């Protein structure tokens, strides 16, 4: 600490100490009261370190991406087995950036063009699919495997047609899809692979991180996810040429690669002759792509830097919680539990189950019962996306009958296994489900609920 108490460094030290005291006072650890205390499906887990990093970044008053973003990208890329990690403002933006990069004219014959097809899973989160439509491409929906909630890979080869150029799928709820099968298919047909790893940070496939197998991977840092920045996302890049392209799309579409606040990194800022612009046109204002501004703030990145120190513990806690729930519910015959894809070590985002057709109750009954006892539930994202209002009437191909996607939409849901849940909470969840199954309570329903 600086000897002058009014020096900025000394004041920062004092502020950091006060922030730690504030965090202790404002966010005390609460006791759990079954049926009264909520059991969320997800949430941010943090301590004084995150708050101190956040305040430290705010004191810089460098409001765009900066030193904390650089530190996070440098540390996160090797964790994910990626050549480079490029931060952006959300996981949804990461998906848009990753697929946009594959449309770049700089890729020549490898570039995706309007009308080209992208294979994806019919059960998933909308923003895995939305960039396909936004870029004028055509999704090829594959039915889901109800055991893993990933795409049914027996159908994957059937999805490949003359214009199929890429695969873009998520590792659902942190459970990796079979990367041996998918990468082999992509290699044989010359297709790109984008791994949506937004729910699966820390998941492994045969000892290697999920997100490192495709040309591109994506991550989300929303509060529900494994690492939080509040909002935020990341594109994992495994092909050097794609790094510059992703960065361009993220940074307004510009050709220049100078960091914010920098200039003339290339040493020839006024020495380029690009497009039909006059020679020497300022490189900072040359645009090679139809891009966006999708950067995040350094304050968000600062929170992420603090979270990285906890990542291994977060992943281990998710696996322990998932195993505890599985051990407590695996003998409940009325429920079909999701299982890990053989060859994988998932980093579970949630604990999923499906109510069997002959259970004597349905998902509505069980979910309503759990919610009434302060146990939060979520459905498996879009269920069958082909039945969602946003996708009706849009061009696509479908592979498989979608009977499994329909079953997921009708009977599947998930509960939390994130690090904020205690063993006491998990045991309460297990006992609540078991007690319901022993004597199902059928919730009253309004006749108009389907209207």
Q: What is the number of domains?
A: 2
Could you say which overall geometry the principal axes of the C-alpha atoms support?
A: flat
Range of strand content:
5-15%
Instruction: Trace the largest sheet across and list its strands.
Output: 1-9-8-5-4-2-3-13
**Percentage of helical residues?**
25-40%
Low confidence ranges: none
CATH class of the largest domain: Alpha Beta
* Tally of helical segments: 12
Structural class: alpha/beta
What is the H-and-E element order? HHHEHEHEEHEEEEEHHHEEEHEHEH
- Major beta sheet summary: 8 strands, mixed
Q: Any idea what the radius of gyration is?
A: 24 Å
Mean pLDDT: 95
- N→C terminal distance: 65 Å
Going by CATH, what is the homologous superfamily of the largest domain? Type I PLP-dependent aspartate aminotransferase-like (Major domain)
> Could you tell me the number of beta strands?
14
Q: What is CATH's topology name of the largest domain?
A: Aspartate Aminotransferase, domain 2
Write the layout of secondary structure elements.
Elements (H helix, E strand, L loop, with lengths): L7 H19 L21 H13 L6 H13 L4 E5 L2 H11 L15 E5 L4 H9 L3 E5 L21 E7 L8 H11 L2 E5 L7 E2 L2 E2 L6 E5 L12 E5 L2 H11 L47 H11 L2 H19 L5 E3 L6 E2 L5 E5 L7 H10 L24 E3 L3 H9 E4 L7 H16 L13
Parallel strand pairs: 2-3, 2-4, 3-13, 4-5, 5-8
Antiparallel strand pairs: 1-9, 6-7, 6-11, 8-9, 10-12, 12-14
Helix pairs in contact: 1-2, 2-8, 3-8, 4-5, 4-7, 9-12
């Amino acid at each position: 600490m600086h000897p002058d108490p009014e020096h900025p460094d000394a004041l920062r030290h004092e502020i950091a100490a006060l922030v730690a005291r504030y965090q202790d006072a404002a966010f005390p650890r609460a006791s759990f009261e079954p049926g009264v205390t909520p059991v969320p499906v997800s949430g941010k887990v943090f301590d004084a370190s995150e708050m101190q990093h956040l305040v430290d970044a705010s004191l810089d008053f460098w409001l765009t991406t900066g030193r904390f973003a650089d530190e996070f990208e440098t540390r996160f890329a090797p964790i994910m087995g990626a050549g480079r990690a490029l931060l952006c403002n959300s996981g949804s933006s990461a998906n848009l950036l990753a697929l946009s990069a594959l449309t770049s004219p700089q890729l020549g014959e490898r570039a995706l063009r309007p009308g080209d097809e992208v294979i994806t899973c019919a059960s998933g989160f909308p923003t895995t699919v939305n960039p396909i439509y936004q870029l004028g491409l055509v999704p090829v929906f594959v039915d889901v495997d109800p055991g893993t909630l990933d795409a049914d890979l027996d159908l994957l080869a059937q999805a490949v047609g003359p214009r199929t150029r890429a695969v873009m799928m998520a590792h659902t709820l942190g459970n990796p899809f079979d990367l041996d099968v998918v990468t082999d298919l992509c290699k044989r047909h010359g297709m790109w692979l984008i791994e949506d790893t937004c729910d699966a940070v820390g998941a492994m496939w045969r000892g290697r991180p999920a997100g490192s197998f495709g040309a591109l991977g994506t991550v989300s840092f929303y509060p529900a996810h494994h690492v939080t920045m509040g909002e935020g996302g990341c594109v994992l890049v495994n092909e050097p040429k794609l790094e510059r392209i992703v960065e361009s799309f993220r940074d307004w579409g510009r050709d220049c690669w100078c960091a914010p606040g920098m200039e003339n990194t290339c040493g020839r800022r006024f020495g380029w002759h690009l497009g039909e612009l006059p020679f020497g046109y300022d490189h900072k204002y040359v645009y090679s792509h139809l891009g966006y501004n999708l950067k995040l703030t350094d304050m968000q990145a600062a929170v992420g830097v603090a979270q990285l120190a906890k990542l291994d513990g977060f992943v281990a806690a998710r696996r322990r919680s998932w195993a505890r729930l599985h051990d407590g519910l695996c003998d409940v015959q009325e429920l079909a539990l999701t299982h890990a894809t053989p060859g994988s070590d998932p980093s579970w985002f949630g604990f999923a189950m499906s109510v069997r057709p002959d259970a004597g109750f349905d998902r509505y009954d069980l979910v309503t019962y759990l919610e009434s006892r302060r146990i939060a539930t979520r459905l498996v994202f879009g269920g069958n996306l082909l039945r969602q209002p946003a996708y009706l009437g849009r061009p696509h191909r479908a592979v498989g009958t979608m009977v499994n996607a329909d079953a997921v939409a009708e009977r599947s849901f998930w509960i939390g296994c994130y690090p904020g849940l205690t063993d006491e909470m998990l045991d309460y969840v297990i006992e609540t489900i078991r007690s319901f199954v022993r004597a199902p309570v059928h919730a009253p329903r309004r006749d108009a609920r389907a209207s």
